[in-house]
Write a structure and sequence with these properties.
The complex is a heterodimer of chains A (330) and B (349). Chain A is α/β, with parallel strands linked by helices and 330 residues long. Chain A is built from 11 helices and 12 strands. The chains are: A alpha/beta (330), B alpha/beta (349). The structure holds adenosine-5'-triphosphate (ATP) (2 copies), iron/sulfur cluster and magnesium ion (2 copies).
Chain lengths: 330, 349
């Protein structure tokens, strides 16, 4: 059984971000003068409870990865705050950050390039234990063997190199490495996107098992809505650097309120030839985050846009039952 | 209920399997393509056969590395030799066996009567040529158009694939376009000579779902107008369900199942196909079903290396139904139900 809603509601968040911003400067010329900014993340707020999975979805380039990396302070935020267990870690120095770093780990999309090809699988998984000076020698071996066991790999495979594993197994290695320090939160950035469908299920099941057993929280980044529906408790939908809708899973999938969420959900091809869906096709390309449109970022593609949408940016507001929507028409 | 879910719910009816499907334009018979690697000989395509009719979409699905792209590239004779070689079979396009054509004659077929949209648009567009030059080159070469006429047609093609401001865009280079726009340029290029057969290898994998929906609609629309037959290679069973009429399932270089799309989704017979269908999460909520939070069905293990296939059925090491016969003898590809073939000793059990 998944962690109950009660449990989720009662405890303090593992992580809470408020008005998070990350603008990447665009530099040009010899003097590397800043000529503009990529508004990759532009005022994002959310919180994740212990044992909860927050799904983060949205089109390519909307800022999902940047959010994940900024939360871990792998990327320095331009603005806003990041709270871990109620402590503000936004401006902590490297040393002070360390204990918080241990609690939050990341698993990357590409199981092929995210593992060092010249290191044995056991060494890769044991690395965080070494870096944080937690265990050595035989003790570390034993801990690594236990981690292998927990993610469904055999301890004998510790001697193997990454290329000797399948994509799904490599992703298990990444997860084992992330688990080494007993984290409270794992940021999983497209953890199954590079995998075959048949292998994808192995990794999703593993993540859900670990959550049940350890009360792990996930920030689960993906553009695969079916996977997100399966694994998440709550879901945030991003468009061009901002969250446009934020709700619990059932509400989001049954009563989407933002026109972009509506378009996104209706565009997902459904693996059932007997179903004919009425697509809410949206026209046009995703605008550039360098020059996001004024007002509501979605107005250039929105079938319902009114004049106000073109000038005034809609705030994220509660439309009932904790469903947050950023749209002037709601 | 939101207007959207209401519409989805009320539209539960058979998808119109549209358009008139015509004569057979392409037959592939016992195609065999191998790679000579250090580890041994890889049978990337092992006796694959199928027929393709005008106006229809045939999907090819299967695990990564099962031979989908190599099948497609073999049809166009684009296999790098060495290490690869087509060692057997026939590919007949409207009466002509492509495998016995001279290379100059084959060049007249590629991009003209058979064209392909490649997995990665950026690697198949020339970065130093404008988009217009790239489209018009094919037209000048295959259709003998003048430069001016070809450029005019390039603009028209871009308009057809809904690239905004096409007259301006033909002058731009690939890097100046967004991913979705580049993919549309590829489609414009592939369709510019009205091919009889269009091979689309993962045409939308790199794209967002809203853009993907636009592109797939576009291919269907153009296919309707021009009667092109399409071979669609994809991992996405959702895309298959929405765009194809027939499906081939490949496993480890071989065809293991073939049926119409409705039949395959309703009654998959091969254990691999069944595993595939059961392992995908389903977006149940959108269709007013209950929240699905249980375990997904997994296909245990992985595909065996192609240079070291087991003696019997290649799926046997992962198959729950495998018995001694499966491990010893490769199952024949047989018609198990009306117009529904599978290669399995225990098909449908
Ligand atoms: N280091 C960087 N310097 C400059 N721009 C960046 C940098 N990292 C990301 N960006 C830009 O920020 C925007 C958001 O990128 P991000 O990778 O967060 O998107 P995403 O939602 O994860 O996309 P995808 O689904 O493709 O992974 C993009 O426009 C990207 O080009
Ligand atoms: N240049 C090559 N040298 C050796 N083997 C090759 C080469 N190209 C392809 N192969 C082999 O042929 C097999 C089929 O490859 P192919 O590209 O057709 O797979 P695919 O089904 O298209 O997979 P994907 O879904 O990942 O695109 C692979 O298993 C690979 O090992
Ligand atoms: S032939 Fe045997 S091993 Fe192969 S798929 Fe059928 S039941 Fe499984
Ligand atoms: Mg990303
Ligand atoms: Mg391929």
């Amino acid at each position: 059984m998944p962690v109950s809603e009660m449990q989720v509601a009662m405890s303090a968040p593992v992580v809470e971000v408020r008005d998070l911003k990350k603008h990447f400067p665009i530099r040009k010329g010899l003097l590397r003068r800043t000529v503009g900014n990529v508004f990759a993340v532009d005022g994002v707020s959310f919180s994740i409870q212990p044992g909860e999975t927050l799904g983060l979805v949205g089109e390519s380039g909307c800022g999902k990865t940047t959010v994940g990396r900024t939360v871990l302070r792998l990327v320095e935020p331009t603005g806003g705050s990041i709270m871990v267990r109620g402590e503000d870690i936004t401006h902590l120095g490297k040393k002070a950050l360390r204990p918080y770093r241990r609690e939050m780990q990341i698993v990357f999309q590409d199981p092929f390039s995210s593992l060092n090809p010249r290191m044995r699988a056991g060494t890769i998984v044991g690395e965080p234990l070494k870096i944080h000076g937690i265990a050595d020698g035989a003790e570390r071996e034993r801990m690594v063997a236990r981690l292998f066991d927990r993610v469904g790999l055999r301890a004998q495979q510790m001697k193997n190199f990454p290329h000797e594993f399948s994509g799904g197994q490599r992703q298990r290695i990444s997860i084992a490495r992330a688990l080494a320090l007993n984290p409270k939160l794992i940021v999983a950035d497209e953890p199954v996107s590079a995998l075959d469908v048949s292998i994808q299920a192995q990794v999703i099941n593993l993540m859900m098992d670990l959550q049940r057993e350890e009360g792990l929280a996930y920030l689960f980044i993906s553009h695969n809505l079916a996977v997100v529906e399966h694994i998440s408790h709550r879901i945030a939908v991003m468009y061009l650097g901002r969250i446009v809708e934020y709700a619990d899973k059932v509400t989001l999938f049954t009563r989407p309120q933002h026109p972009y969420t509506e378009a996104l959900l209706s565009a997902v091809p459904v693996p059932d030839p007997a179903l004919k869906r009425n697509k809410h096709m949206v026209e046009g390309d995703v605008p550039s985050p360098v020059r996001p449109p004024p007002g509501c970022h979605f107005h250039t593609r929105c079938p319902y846009a009114i004049d106000r949408c073109r000038v005034e940016s809609p705030p994220l507001k509660d439309v009932g039952d904790g469903q947050l929507v950023a749209c002037h028409l709601r | 209920m939101s207007p959207m879910t209401a519409q989805i719910a009320e539209k539960v009816e058979a998808a119109p399997r549209r358009r008139s499907i015509g004569e057979v334009v392409l037959t592939v018979d016992d195609l065999q393509t191998v790679f000579y690697t250090r580890a041994g000989m890889v049978r990337a395509v092992d006796r694959v056969s199928f027929a393709l009719k005008a106006g229809e979409t045939l999907a090819i699905v299967g695990e990564s590395g099962c031979g989908k792209s190599i099948t497609a590239l073999s049809l166009l004779r684009l296999i790098p030799d060495p290490p690869g070689r087509i060692v057997g079979g026939k590919v007949v396009l409207e009466g002509t066996d492509l495998l016995s054509l001279s290379e100059p004659a084959m060049r007249k077929v590629r991009g003209n009567r058979v064209s392909m949209i490649f997995q990665e648009p950026m690697t198949s567009l020339n970065p130093v040529l404008t988009v217009g030059r790239q489209i018009s080159q094919a037209l000048m070469m295959h259709q003998g158009m003048s430069k001016a006429a070809a450029m005019e047609r390039a603009v028209e093609m871009l308009r057809l694939v809904k690239v905004p401001e096409p007259a301006q865009r033909v002058k731009e280079y690939p890097h100046q376009l967004s991913g979705g726009m580049r993919q549309r340029v590829m489609i414009a290029m592939a369709l510019s000579c009205n091919p009889r057969v269009l091979i689309a290898d993962e045409p939308t994998t790199a794209l967002d779902v809203t853009i993907q929906a636009q592109i797939l609609d576009l291919i269907l629309e153009l296919q309707n107008q021009l009667g092109t037959a399409v071979i669609l290679i994809t991992h996405d069973l959702g895309v298959v369900a929405e765009t194809a009429q027939r499906v081939i399932v490949m496993y480890a270089g071989r065809k293991v199942e073939e049926a119409t799309v409705e039949e395959l989704f309703a009654r998959p017979l091969h254990p691999y196909t069944r595993g595939l269908m059961a392992s995908i999460p389903r977006l149940g909520l959108m269709r007013n079903q209950t929240v699905e939070t249980g375990r997904l069905q997994e296909i245990p293990g992985m595909v065996p290396p192609l240079f070291d296939l087991p003696a019997g059925c290649a799926y046997a090491p992962r198959c729950a139904l495998a018995d001694d016969r499966c491990r010893a003898e490769y199952p024949p590809f047989e018609e198990k139900r009306d117009a529904h073939w599978a290669a399995c000793w225990h098909a449908g059990e």
